[in-house]
Amino acid sequence: MAVDAHKAQIKRHLSIHFGISFTKGITHTDVLNELKSLVDQNEIQTIQITEKECIHVVTVHDQNTKHTLLTRGINLINRYIRMVDVEQQVTNVTIKDAPCEMSDVTICGHLSKFGDVVQGSLDRGLIKDTNIETGTRYVQLTNCIPIIPTATKFGRFSVRMFADNNRTECPYCTRTDHPSYRCTNKPSRQNQAARKCYRCNSTTHTIKDCPHSEKLCYRCGKEGHIQRDCQTDDQEMYGDYVHDIQEGRDANKNDSFTEDNNSEELIVELNKTTETVFEQTKTLPSQPLKQ
């Protein structure tokens, strides 16, 4: 997966954040007033609030101010709130579906395109109280890209990856501050599209209500063959020669059928001849053995 060079250059070394449910409704001014009790207002660059997830991000101008806020925290609505670095130095990545035979060196080699692999950080998942592996790998990265893809390929093998530190994108809203199963935009079961009929590929009914008795070709919509054998594909591939090619295929099938029939007839005749010879042998008078 190609990485946008401009996105990879984004650094948030001077940003910290905090978020908790009871802070919903708190304004920028409320946060600023609490911050001014700890640091100079001129050292604060931005205060961002996402009302939906109640996440508050504060960006400052220097490391000393950031360190003060990280170590001291702030008080809102008579509650102490700890602030956290937006960009932690280490990102933990979980890899699933990679073959168990794939070496640790190969895994680290593929992950190096997303960031710097921490030496000796790769661990293999084990079933509890056993030495049996689950196939899952756990790796730590530093200086990694802003968004780590949830699906990629290690050579010819498809794998899934999940990362902490707000590096995994939600498939429903493309945000990174929550897992997909907690997304408020996730469609409910009632709103999901109806299941397809696996016989005719229709979305208006299931297979038990399908009016067709045979499986339909998904390309031309006709019965009697599947998409792999559809002549529509041949028409696109071979153009004007498709009919000649199809006649040749049919002729080969007929020749094969004729040869099979001839072989069966020959076997029947041989069996009849063998039975006749056997019967004639039984009717011959027995000859005395010569002394």
TrEMBL record:
<keyword id="KW-0479">Metal-binding</keyword>
<dbReference type="GO" id="GO:0008270">
    <property type="term" value="F:zinc ion binding"/>
</dbReference>
<dbReference type="InterPro" id="IPR001878">
    <property type="entry name" value="Znf_CCHC"/>
</dbReference>
<dbReference type="Pfam" id="PF00098">
    <property type="entry name" value="zf-CCHC"/>
</dbReference>
<keyword id="KW-0862">Zinc</keyword>
<keyword id="KW-0863">Zinc-finger</keyword>
<protein>
    <recommendedName>
        <fullName>CCHC-type domain-containing protein</fullName>
    </recommendedName>
</protein>
<dbReference type="InterPro" id="IPR036875">
    <property type="entry name" value="Znf_CCHC_sf"/>
</dbReference>
<feature type="domain" description="CCHC-type">
    <location>
        <begin position="195"/>
        <end position="211"/>
    </location>
</feature>
<feature type="domain" description="CCHC-type">
    <location>
        <begin position="217"/>
        <end position="230"/>
    </location>
</feature>
<dbReference type="GO" id="GO:0003676">
    <property type="term" value="F:nucleic acid binding"/>
</dbReference>
